[in-house]
Amino acid sequence: MKKTDDYWDSAILGAPVPRADRMILSGRLNVCLFFVWLGLSLFAPYGILAAGPDELPGLLSEKHLGSGSGVSEHPNYTRATVAYIVPDVELEAHDGTAVELASAIGADRAVMVNFVFTSCTTICPVLSSSFAEVNRRLQSSGEEVNLYSISIDPDYDTRDKISEYARRVGAGGSWLFLRGSAADTFRAEKAFDTYRGNKMNHLPLTFMKPAGTDKWVRLEGFPSAQQILTEYRSAGVR
Amino acid sequence: MRFPWHGGVHQAYLGTVAAMVVAFSGLATADVEGHTGIDQPEKIDQVSIGRDIYREGKLPSGEAIVGSSLGDIPVSGSLVACENCHRRSGLGSSEGGKVVPPVTAQALLSDRTHDQRSAFRSRSLRSTERPAYDAEYLARALRLGVDSAGRTLDPLMPRYELTDSHVEALIAYLRTLVFENIPGLTETEIHFATIVARNSDETDRQSMLEVLKRFFKDKNANTRNESGRASRGAYYRDFMEDSYRAWVLHVWELDGASDTWRKQLEKLYADEPVFALVGGIGEGSWRPVHEFCENNGVPCIFPITDQPVGDEDFYSIYLSVGLRQEARALAEELKSVWESVSGSECGGPGTERSPRLEKADVPLIVQVYRRGSEGEAMAKAVSDGLEGSEWPTEVHAVESAGPPPTQFWRSLYAERPGSILFVWLSARDLVSFKQAIPVPGAPDRPQMVVVSETITGPDAFRVTGALIPQTRVVSKFELLDGRNRSLERLRAWLRPRGIELKRERIQADSYLAVTLTSSAVRHMRRNFSREYMIEIIEHGLDNSVFRSVYPRLSLGPNQRFASKEIYILRTIDCDPEKWISVDDVSAH
Question: What's the CATH class of domain B189-320+481-557?
Fold first, then answer.
C-alpha cells in the first residue's frame, strides 16, 4: 500500500514531500479514489443493463448481471438464464454429418447442449449418462428436443473417438456428439462462457432452451435427470 | 510415528474443498506406506476379481457393474469403473472443481484425523475426519453412498450394486496398491535413466545429455538446503519436505539395432534399478523400450523418437506422434482432396484446389528412402495407408553408402515421368537432388515432391530447389514463427549455463521432458507411485507454458501423445521463406 501511495504522490506532485504531508495526501487521495470507485460501482452496471439482456454479446453472461437475470441456487446445481450468441461454426457430428452450429441450436430449435471430452474421467461420464437418461425420457414422452454434446478436446477427440464414445454412452438419433477444429471448438466454448483453458478445469454445465428464444437456461452442477427435465419444461414459461 | 494423512492434507472428500482445486497443485494426495502385499496364493483370485471391478467395471460373471448417479441416472460398466476417477494409482485426482479422494487400502483402512496439524488448518477439515473403513463400511459406502462416519458422499460418486464378495475382492485389490520398495528409490536418492542408442547422431546424443545433466546438476545444487530440511524440517511441513531426494542420472547406452535393445535394457535395469526413464534417443522402432517400460512398470517420459508405439498402453508418454501418424495424415489427405498442380510454375497461373482427380489422371507415387532408415518406416506406413485407394505406388530404396548421385535422380525422372515423389531421405542424402531437376515444361518433371521435416530436418524447406512451388512438407512441428517464440524460453535457460543451441528439437524436447519430470516429482510428495507420476503429467501438461517445438501440448487421462497436430505445408507466392498449412490435418 505504502509503495502505491508514494507512487501516486510523486506522480502527482513530481517531487518528494515531507513524510507527514505525504501521509495526509495519501489519505486524501484514498478518499478521492474511494468516491471514484463508489461512483463506478453504482452507475457502471446501468450502462450494461441499458443494453438489455437480449442485446448482450455471448461472453457477457449472467454473472455480470447479478441476480436480476434469474440466478437461483439449488442444492446440487445453480441455475441462470442467459442470452448467448451462438457462433457461426461448422462442426462434425459423430455420424459424419456436418452441423452448422448456429442453425442447429439457433432460436427456432429446442435443444440441450453440454461440453465433454472422451478421455475425461470424472465429470463427463456422469454428464453423458445424464444425457442418455434425459434423452430416453424425452423420447418416451414424445418431446422433440435435440441434444448436442460438444467435445472440448479437438486434438484427441477425432471422428473415430467421438463415434466410439457415442456408441458407449448410447447416443444417436436426436443426440449427436460434435467435434471441430481447435479454433472453432474454443469459439463455441467461449460463446457459452465455458472455456477454462486447460480442459481438466472444465465445469459441469448443461444448457437448454425451448424453441422460439435465444435465452438459455444454464445449469452448473449435477442436476438429476428429473431436475433437468423440470428445468427444461419450465424454461419457456419463466 | 507417521499417520497416513501426513502426505495428504490436501485430501478432502468430494465437494468439501472444491474451491481448493487448481489443476496441477490441487491433486488429491495421500501418503501410502501400507504393509499389505499379497502372499497367500488363494488371495490371488480375489485380487484379479477386484482388479476387474476396479479397472474395468466388470463383475466376475462377465457382466458390467451397474449403479446410479445423481439420484436417478443409471450408470454401468467401464464408464463408471473405480479407476476412472480414483485412477490407476488409487490416489485419486481432481477435475472441474471436484476432488476425488485416494482409495488405496492404506488410505481407506485407517482412521483419518487431523490432530497434530489442527492449529494450522481450517476447522472445516474436522468434517473430513472419519474412522477406518472395513468391509462392512465400504459396502455401505459403495451401495448407499454413506461414508464410515455416517456422512453422505458426494452425489457424483455412483451408488453401485455390489455383493459382499465383490467388496471383499475390491479390498483385496486395493491392498495391492502399495508403494514400497520401489526400484530406484532410496531414503536420500531418486534414480533416473536416459537411453542413448549409439545408432543415433552423435551431436543429437550429446545435445540431449548436456541438457539433462545440467538440469540434474542444478536440481541437486541444494540451494535451499533441501536435504537439511528433509532430515530436520518443521513438523508441520514435513509432508512437503521429507520427500526430497537427490536426483541421480544413469546413462544407458545401447548398441546395435533397436530389435536388440530389449535384452540390454533388462540387464541394465537388473544391475541398476531406476524409478523412471527420462528422455532418451535412438533410431528405429521404439517398441523394445516401450515394452520394457510396460512390462516393468517403469514410467518412460517423453523419449525423443519418431517411431513411438500407439496409445493403448500406460507407462510410456510421448511428446509427439510418429512417422506412422504422419504417413496416415498424408494418405488421408491424398485420399480425400488433393490440389491440382497443373500450371503452378512460378509466374504461371495460380494453384487452385480441385475436386478429386479422375482415375485416368492419377499419377504414380514414387517413394524414395534409405534402406534401414526412418524413411523406410515412413514409406511402409504410407503404402499401408494408401492400400485400397486409387493411388498406385512404388518404392525405391537407396542402398549405396553415400548420397544418391545426380544420375540416380535423372534416371528416376526419365523412367517415371510426371510422377509424385515422396522423398523420405535426410538432408545429406539430398545434396544432388537440386541439380537433377528437369526444366519447367519438360515431360519428365515431377508433378509434386513431398518431404518430411521429421526425416529431412529444417532443410526440408530448402532442399528441393527449383521444385519448391511443387513441394509439400509434412511436419509435426510448430510453424517457424511460433516455434522461434516458444524457443525463447529454452534460450533463456541455456544462455546463462553457457550451452549453445545446436539442435533445437533435441534440446527443447529434453528440457521439456526433464522439467515435467521435475514438476511431477514435486507434486507426488511422499506418494512415490510410478502410476501417480504419470497421472500427474497427464493432468498437468496442459498448464505447461513451454511447449518445445510443437504447436500445442495437451494430454488427458490415458492420452499418450502430447502433440497431435500434423501439417502439410506449401509455399505462398513461391516464396521459400513463407509456408502455410494446406489444411489442418488431424493425426488420427
Answer: alpha beta
Q: In what order do the strands lie in the sheet with A215-221?
A: A72-74, A77-83, A215-221, A205-209, A111-116, A146-151, A175-179, A90-93, A98-100
Check CB contact under 8 Å for B71 and A224: yes
Domain ranges of chain B: 18-174, 189-320+481-557, 324-475+567-586
Residue B559, chain A, CB below 8 Å: the answer is yes
**How many whole angstroms separate alpha carbon B581 and alpha carbon B565?**
11
Q: Is B95 in Cβ contact with A121 (below 8 Å)? A: yes
Assembly ipTM: 0.81
pLDDT (average), residues A2-8: 38
**CATH 3.40.50.2300 for domain B324-475+567-586:** yes
Q: Which residue spans within B228-289 are E strands per DSSP? A: 246-254, 276-278
Question: Angle A189-A190-A192 (CA atoms, 0-180°, nearest 5)?
Answer: 70
Selecting from B73, B84, B539 the residue whose C-beta is nearest the C-beta of A224 gives: B73
* Pairwise CA distance, residues A193 & B361, whole Å: 49
- Looking at every residue in chain B, the average pLDDT score rounds to 85
CB contact under 8 A, B156 and A200: no
Contact B227, B244 (CB under 8 A): yes
Cell of B196: 542413448
pLDDT in tens, A113-161: 999 999 999 999 999 999 999 999 999 999 999 999 999 999 999 999 9
The C-alpha R_g of chain A, in whole angstroms, comes to: 23
Task: Provide the grid cell at A188.
Answer: 463455441
Nearest CB neighbour to A222, from listed B79, B155, B552:
B155
On chain B, the residues whose CB falls within 8 A of the CB of A197 are 542
Q: Please give the sequence-ordered ranges of beta strands (E in DSSP) within B205-257, or none if there are none.
A: 246-254
**Beta carbon pairs, A and B, within 8 Å:** 109
